[in-house]
């Protein structure tokens, strides 16, 4: 069935960080934002541009501009928001869908992190939100909405989430801190805590398939996929949520409220009986 659009973002302009390929959460967010009438600049790190097929996404989004920016570089962000200002005047939304951990990629155990990579993880995945809001402030319209993607590993232990769990805790704190300060201008800042999703970043986590299956079986509604995530983000960028701010909003099929259910219990029983010595 064809998707229904409601024009929720007619007239809104913004910047979307982090679309790499069709699996990316930001890719699906861009498609839905465009479908709802929003206009935006697409951006990713210069190095990622070599692998990203952003020209394809740009074409699908009415030839949206593509501007390279490394989120750890002040000069790149300044240039990006100057470009946004000259193109749009002011902007109404920012989507932060960015993350990377070299410690995860190289499978370094948490108790033996390489600190230069750890600092890079925090810089790319969390401090970047602070940096981008700072540079966007002169360009942000009053009433704008800022959304960053996060994961429940920010405050519960998922052993292989490693230093990204620390980065997500910091990201959520930065969102609250800026949200509190920007309320005067009716600018809201929220994080969306998404289910495990098969993307380049997601698939890089050790044991991701098992984590994905576990979450899917435990969640009453099953895991949320990237298109569903995009739908939710659209509501947060729209005027329908103008009094929602400083929130960490779960978009996870109910996983965050669950402890155990019969589906997972059955799997554990099967595994326990398989482990019994045969007579
Ligand atoms: N996939 C999941 O299971 C999942 C679950 C919850 C939250 N998230 C979060 O969603 C966000 C998007 O990740 P995704 O799963 O779509 O994966 P993805 O790999 O498609 O996106 C991550 C993006 O970050 C970009 N990036 C990395 N370093 C950068 C830098 N220095 N400057 C600019 N951009 C940079 C990458 O190029 C890439 O486009 C991340 O914050 C991730 O932690 C993902």
TrEMBL record:
Binding annotation for NAD(+): 18, 70-71, 98, 168
Pathway listed: Lipid metabolism
Protein name: Enoyl-[acyl-carrier-protein] reductase [NADH]
GO molecular function list: enoyl-[acyl-carrier-protein] reductase (NADH) activity
Protein family membership: Belongs to the short-chain dehydrogenases/reductases (SDR) family. FabI subfamily.
PANTHER family attached to this UniProt entry: ENOYL-[ACYL-CARRIER-PROTEIN] REDUCTASE, ENOYL-[ACYL-CARRIER-PROTEIN] REDUCTASE [NADH], CHLOROPLASTIC
Keywords, sorted A to Z: Fatty acid biosynthesis, Fatty acid metabolism, Lipid biosynthesis, Lipid metabolism, NAD, Oxidoreductase
SUPFAM superfamilies: NAD(P)-binding Rossmann-fold domains (SSF51735)
Record-listed E.C. numbers: 1.3.1.9
Active site (catalytic residues): 151 (proton acceptor), 161 (proton acceptor)
Organism phylogeny: Bacteria, Candidatus Moduliflexota, Candidatus Vecturitrichia, Candidatus Vecturitrichales, Candidatus Vecturitrichaceae
Any one GO BP annotation for this protein: fatty acid biosynthetic process
Enzyme's top EC category: oxidoreductase
Catalytic activity of the protein: a 2,3-saturated acyl-[ACP] + NAD(+) = a (2E)-enoyl-[ACP] + NADH + H(+)
InterPro entries (UniProt xref): Enoyl-ACP_Rdtase_NADH, NAD(P)-bd_dom_sf, SDR_fam
């Amino acid at each position: 069935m064809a998707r229904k659009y409601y024009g929720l973002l007619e007239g809104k302009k913004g910047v979307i960080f982090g679309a790499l390929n069709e699996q990316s959460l930001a890719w699906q967010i861009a498609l839905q934002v465009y479908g709802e009438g929003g206009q935006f600049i697409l951006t990713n790190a210069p190095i990622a541009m070599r692998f990203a097929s952003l020209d394809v996404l740009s074409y699908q989004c009415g030839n949206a501009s593509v501007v390279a920016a490394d989120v750890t570089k002040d000069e790149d962000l300044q240039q990006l928001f100057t470009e946004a200002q000259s193109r749009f005047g002011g902007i109404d939304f920012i989507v932060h869908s960015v993350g990377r951990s070299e410690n995860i990629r190289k499978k370094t155990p948490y108790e033996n992190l390489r600190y230069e990579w750890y600092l890079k993880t925090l810089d790319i995945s969390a401090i970047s939100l602070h940096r981008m809001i700072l540079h966007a402030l002169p360009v942000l319209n009053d009433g704008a909405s800022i959304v960053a993607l996060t994961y429940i590993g920010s405050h519960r232990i998922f052993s292989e989430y490693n230093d990204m769990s620390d980065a997500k805790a910091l990201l959520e704190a930065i969102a609250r801190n800026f949200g509190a300060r920007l309320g005067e201008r009716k600018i809201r800042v929220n994080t969306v805590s998404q289910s495990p999703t098969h993307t380049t970043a997601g698939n890089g986590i050790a044991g991701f398939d098992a984590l994905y299956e576990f979450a899917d079986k435990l969640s009453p509604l099953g895991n949320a996929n990237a298109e569903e995530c995009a739908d939710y983000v659209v509501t947060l960028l729209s005027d329908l949520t103008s009094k929602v701010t400083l929130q960490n909003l779960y978009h996870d099929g109910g996983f965050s409220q669950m402890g155990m259910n019969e589906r997972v219990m059955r799997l554990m029983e099967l595994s326990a009986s398989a482990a019994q010595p045969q007579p």
